[in-house]
Amino acid sequence: MQSKFFASAGAVIIPLACATLVFPEYAKAQDAAILACVKDLQTKLKVSADIAFTECKQKSLADCIKSISDRNYVGDAIRKEGSGNLIDLGSNESRWLEGGAWKALGCQPFVPGPQRITQTMSSWNTNKHQWFRQAVCPQAFVELDQPIGITDAKLMCETDSIPQRIKDIPKKL
Asked: For 32-54, what is the mean pLDDT?
């Protein structure tokens, strides 16, 4: 009976240990909840440890994505710039802000950085909009009024790169 237990435990622990060393995103796999899930699936469904681990890891990934996808996006400082912090919103142009939106956050658009110009036309006028990827801010991060979204949440969860600031921001009701 003991050898069966040790073989079963070894089938779970060895892949976890190896995955933790080879793939940092699997470091969370050592969490007691995943191990409990594996044990539960093995007992209830009589499946192998590797199948149970795969199922539990998928469930963990889905739970992670679900928990952060509706939270607001947080842009972080990438370096010091003058007397402030250079905040970068990344390459997703839908996150970039107009100059006035940056100023409302207490920041100054970083003109030497990436930007784009769009125009909207109506029957009586044309409006020009200038969007900035970066700005110099007194604070080290800015929280946008934009959800992270499923695609970015999946990437953050898969690479175990969820910024602590996102973890600290309470979920929307």
From this structure: 83
